[in-house]
Amino acid sequence: MRPLTSQDPRAVGPYRTLARLGAGGMGVVYLARSSGGALAAVKVIRAEHADDPGFRARFRREAEAAARITGPWVVPVLGADTEDREPWLATAFVPGPSLAEVVGAGGALPTATVRALGSRLAEALVAVHEAGLIHRDVKPGNVLLALDGPRLIDFGIARHEGATALTTTGAVIGTPGYLAPEQASAGPPGPPGDVFSLGCVLVYAATGRPPFGEGGGAGALFRTIHEEPDLTGVEPGLVPLIAACLAKDPADRPTASRVRDALAAKAPGGPGHPGRVRDPREYPGRRGAPDPHELPRTPSASAPAPDLWQMPTGLPALIAERSAAALALPDPEPLPVTLGPAGNGAASGPARRRLLTAGAAGAVLLAGGSTATWIALRRRGAGAGGPSAGSGEPPTYTIGLHADLGGPGRATGLAHRRGVQLAVADHNARADKTFRLALRAEDDAGDPAKALRAAGRLAADPEVIAVVGPTGRLLREDLVQRYEKERLATVVVAAGSTTADSGTGLHLCVTRPFDDVLSTGLIGYLTRTRPATRILLVEDAADPVLAKETGGAFRDTAPAGATLLEHPLVRGNAGFGAVARKAVTSRADAVVLGGGNASRAARLATALAGEGFTGSRVAVGPALGPAFLADAGAAADGWVFAEAYADPTALPSARTFTAAHRKRFGAPPATWAAEAYDAVGLIARAAGTTSASGEVRSGIARRIVRAEHRGIVRTLAFDASTRRVRIPDGIFLYRIEKGRPRFLGPFGDV
What we know:
Elements: E1 11-12, E2 15-23, E3 27-33, E4 39-45, H1 47-50, H2 53-66, E5 77-81, E6 88-92, H3 99-106, H4 111-130, E7 133-134, E8 143-146, E9 149-152, E10 159-160, H5 181-184, H6 191-207, H7 217-226, H8 239-245, H9 256-265, H10 315-327, H11 349-353, E11 396-403, H12 410-428, E12 436-443, H13 448-460, E13 464-468, E14 474-475, H14 477-485, E15 489-492, E16 497-498, E17 508-510, H15 519-529, E18 534-539, H16 544-556, E19 563-566, H17 576-585, E20 590-594, H18 598-610, E21 616-620, H19 626-632, E22 639-643, H20 655-665, H21 673-687, H22 696-706, E23 709-710, E24 715-716, E25 718-719, E26 724-725, E27 732-737, E28 740-746
Parallel strand pairs: 11-12, 11-13, 13-15, 14-16, 15-17, 18-19, 18-20, 20-21, 21-22
Antiparallel strand pairs: 1-2, 2-3, 3-4, 4-6, 5-6, 7-10, 8-9, 22-27, 23-24, 25-26, 27-28
Helix pairs in contact: 4-6, 4-9, 6-8, 10-15, 12-21, 13-14, 17-18, 18-19, 21-22
């Protein structure tokens, strides 16, 4: 990021610019913040290009088409104004580095990472091609790496298949060294050209160099057209597939979906079976002849196997650093609000064209700090549960609560119910509301069978527009599928993990980062707050899943200059003393516990205190349970935990909520109550974007993940394609002091 210059705009549409992310001949890309507080990358086209009516028309068509592209590995379009003097396009901000940066700094990637990278990028191209577009500039610089995989960006020269050229006849569009031969010779582009570029990217990722030599320009174009690619150093099992992608004749290349399936399968045996990817020519065609397009298929071609992604070394730390840098930028002043004719706020003309934001139809939302802090600019007709049009009464939308209210998790369920009740009451008390909210609660008592029945009852109620919950720590796949079958949006607040496959719940929205990424907060703590030079990583064999996740994050992202030591914590009761002695004898200044068993964490705390260890002691949230505080006693003091929930009593933004909770329920809000309150605000905000009768329930899931809600805990914003919450301000740190957790704040602010 670079500071803004005196020539840079301070506002682009509804976005306030914060810094420069990059610049080129066509325009400038800014890091910007929306009125709701979410970060975005806003590309502004220079006025001299926009003065060309043909260019503006093409930009308009491409912006609208790009907004329709969905998929987990494509950065979603958030909004655009194609009629401005300098047209702009806003996409979600991804704080990760580009593939070019990662490979340039650290060299070639491991083969498993290359396979996963290719499978996901091929999946992104499937989405692009299914939308009728061609990307035309797939290259390492246009691939950003996030914690869960890559993101394909920059559709600046993308075009409709069969559209006329963007420039004069004979011009070459794209990046030499990654262009297909037909593009390099200024021929007509098509989807096979993107597959060729993908093959070039995979060679670069696998070897650290492009397949047609270093250096761009005419030399690279000549070699692309006339010479064979250099695949030296590519893992042999990948050579047949990449060679097929790099075929000179477009007709000889596999489709993007075939590449995705082949890489996800990894071998004829299917996902997870190691081995080579078979040469496309080994697969018989329809008439018994070799078919160059026929590649191995997985049983399901919906997405690559989620367990293949292995993050390049240092990626989590770099993402955390960039996220912290972006969040540390000063908060811009809010943009002025302009209402339409007669004060009703109706948008028209160019102002309406600025509302290209996906999912927003007929309404503008203004960010605020409490439930449903928005102003709807059109009255809605009858919706789910509402009166008939023209009755003069606003419709009523019912929010379902799926909670454990009578089982082992009833404390969390009760916190959810109280938070939701306050949110519904606050919304209905607003004078400017355009619909009312009602609440329907279903108790599953923590029983899986009852949970399915509770989901069925909520799904069968046509007045329920969305559900908050379930409230258990584990989000089960069968519940996700049950709600998915009925296309009912579910907003999950408290679950720390899930058995559902990534990307399977199109109507699922989880408002917290899962436990497997909480270690990012610990890495930040040991990097900035309490810098550690010798870190002892303790992986608890009694919790192998969380141990592996925490350990992997620290191995990939040990703070710069720190030495990472390791000592396993074996099952049973005999290993705690050995770990404590290792911490002292190795002169470690920090101990990281990988595991979520609170009782075992207490035993480790006691052992460390017994050996006189006084360095930093950190763990992720699941280890902070009642058993930890009760069993560790004084040895718990000083431990720091990364959690996904905040303490509303310590947040100025939640002061009113805390007071209302005490007044109504006679107690301060418990864990997850404030987050449940914000979940209702998010649903109400999304419901407020529905302008047509009867469309609230059917479309609210899509609107939820495209909405931004500035809640009392934090701003809720999502990756619209993966429906995953943006995590930088969603990980909080607590330190145990005098036997009680004290809230320190978001890890980036501590």
